[in-house]
């Protein structure tokens, strides 16, 4: 139906879609900041002001960490997509931030897959989808590995009451899922994000070990930056925790929050709930934790998505599809 529409009508709908994405992103940012049930925005601002977080040196340092976080994400995407096309840093920035804006209010940021793929002509889109899946799996792998290490130290250092009956049921469920996945891989009947596991496996093996290792390294660097930023904000908000003790909780928090399916806009709520529980073990009050989580979301999602809206509005389809 779309292909049969007149050119001007197509252009009108195309502009309407781009405007809808940008308006939707701004609306969700507004909702999260000013209609936040867990933390009043005025209270949030006054608390930051009380702790002198608005001093120029603090703002500049936090913004530098945000820029570094997204710089390494952009460099990682540029590196991963080099198997298909050589991108400039500016092109990789456009695709990364534009995709962030388009996926801000989608479950698990799934809109990012389509947003990045649409920058490429049809013959390349399936491989772009796979590369984006691999990029996210790399970041998740780092989160899981460091999160498990953090969780081990967490159980050693803090008294955590466990419901062993529920835990055993959970382990049984995990075992069943792992078994089904294993047999599914053997029979090639299961898929991830719509791709057969066999196809993903072959695609990954063909990329080469050095390629995957460097991608994981960039994911690790990015993780180190945003987890350090979380610690810095906690320190600025008056939380007296050593770096090692804080990282035990931070890595455990990211592990738990990452395995809970959520819409990106609610990511701050999920992380806030998990963070409150975990930091309470160390005697940290609720207000600085919630403020830290909200500020992290503002710095690493809301502000970059505002810049990404420029790229969304100026986006044009590949020349072969205009």
TrEMBL record:
The keyword Cell membrane applies. Signal peptide: none annotated. Its main location: membrane. The chain crosses the membrane at residues 12-33, 53-72, 129-155, 167-185, 205-225. The keyword Transmembrane helix applies. It is a multi-pass membrane protein. Pfam families: LPG_synthase_TM. It is found in: Cell membrane. GO terms for cellular component: plasma membrane. It comes from the Bacteria. InterPro entries: L-PG_synthase/AglD. Keywords: Cell membrane, Membrane, Transmembrane, Transmembrane helix. This is Lysylphosphatidylglycerol synthase-like protein. The lineage of its organism: Bacteria, Pseudomonadati, Bacteroidota, Flavobacteriia, Flavobacteriales.
């Amino acid at each position: 139906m779309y292909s049969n529409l007149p050119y001007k009508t197509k252009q009108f709908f195309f502009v309407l879609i781009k405007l809808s994405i940008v308006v939707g992103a701004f609306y969700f940012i507004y909702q999260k900041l000013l209609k936040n049930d867990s933390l009043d925005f005025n209270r949030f601002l006054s608390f930051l002001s009380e702790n002198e977080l608005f001093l120029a040196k603090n703002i500049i340092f936090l913004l530098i960490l945000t820029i570094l976080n997204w710089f390494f994400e952009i460099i990682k995407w540029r590196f991963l997509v080099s198997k298909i096309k050589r991108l400039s840093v500016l092109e990789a920035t456009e695709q990364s931030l534009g995709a962030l804006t388009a996926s801000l209010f989608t479950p698990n940021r799934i809109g990012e897959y389509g947003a990045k793929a649409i920058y490429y002509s049809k013959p390349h889109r399936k491989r772009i989808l796979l590369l984006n899946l691999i990029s996210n799996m790399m970041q998740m792998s780092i989160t899981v590995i460091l999160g498990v290490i953090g969780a081990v130290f967490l159980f050693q250092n803090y008294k955590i009451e466990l419901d062993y009956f529920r835990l055993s049921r959970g382990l049984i469920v995990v075992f069943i899922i792992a078994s089904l996945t294993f047999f599914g891989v053997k029979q090639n009947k299961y898929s991830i994000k719509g791709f057969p596991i066999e196809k993903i496996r072959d695609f990954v093996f063909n990329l080469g070990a050095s390629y995957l290792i460097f991608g994981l390294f960039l994911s690790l660097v990015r993780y180190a930056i945003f987890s350090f930023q979380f610690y810095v904000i906690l320190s600025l908000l008056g939380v007296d925790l050593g770096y090692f003790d804080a990282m035990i909780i931070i890595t455990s928090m990211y592990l738990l929050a990452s395995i809970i399916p959520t819409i990106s806009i609610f990511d701050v709520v999920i992380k806030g709930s998990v963070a409150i529980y975990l930091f309470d073990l160390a005697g940290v009050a609720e207000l600085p934790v919630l403020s830290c989580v909200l500020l992290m979301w503002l710095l690493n999602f809301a502000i970059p998505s505002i810049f990404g809206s420029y790229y969304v509005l100026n986006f044009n389809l590949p020349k072969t599809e205009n």
